[in-house]
């Protein structure tokens, strides 16, 4: 009888939080908060968790850092999930609105009346 066993990572994404500026790619975006669980598998079926990591990554370049469990819980509190910064997190000013743009009006150029071409020589 053959027994197939192994390990695999299962991830749960808790959505974007931020905006934060990435130190690697210098883009400002909502960073992804992810919980990755390492599972022991038997016949490709997850049986029990072996380890867990909490990650906070940039959605552009996928660089980031690992969080402690307490930091992860602080970010996933209902207050933080509603878009409010958790305690100890930096707050960012609201982005300025774009200035109103003038409406471009297009008027077609006047066309000259079609000319009658000579049909001689045909």
- The helix/strand class is mainly beta
Shape: elongated
Proportion of helical residues: under 10%
Weakly predicted, low-confidence segments: 90-98
Tell me how many strands there are.
Answer: 4
Strand order of the largest sheet: 1-2-3-4
Give the distance, in angstroms, between the N- and C-terminal Cα atoms. Answer: 92 Å
Summed up, the helix count is 2
Largest sheet: 4 strands, antiparallel
Order of helices and strands: EEEEHH
- How much β-strand is present in the residues? 35-45%
Radius of gyration: 29 Å
What average pLDDT do the residues reach? 74
Could you walk me through the main structural features you see in this protein, from its secondary elements to its overall organization?
The longest helix has 7 residues, at 69-75. 9% of the residues lie in helices and 40% in strands. The protein has a domain at 11-81. A hairpin with a 6-residue loop joins strand 3 (45-57) and strand 4. The radius of gyration is 29 Å and the shape is elongated. It has a four-stranded antiparallel sheet with strand order 1-2-3-4. The chain is mainly β and 122 residues long.
């Amino acid at each position: 009888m053959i027994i197939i066993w192994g390990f695999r990572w299962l991830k749960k994404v808790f959505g974007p939080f931020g905006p934060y500026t990435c130190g690697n790619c210098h883009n400002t975006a909502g960073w992804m908060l992810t919980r990755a669980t390492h599972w022991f598998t038997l016949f490709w079926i997850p049986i029990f968790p072996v380890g867990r990591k909490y990650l906070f990554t940039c959605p552009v370049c996928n660089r980031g850092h690992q969080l402690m469990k307490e930091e992860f819980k602080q970010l996933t509190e209902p207050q933080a999930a509603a878009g409010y910064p958790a305690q100890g997190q930096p707050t960012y000013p609201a982005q300025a609105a774009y200035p109103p743009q003038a409406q471009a009006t297009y008027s077609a150029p006047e066309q000259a009346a079609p000319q009658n071409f000579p049909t001689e020589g045909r």
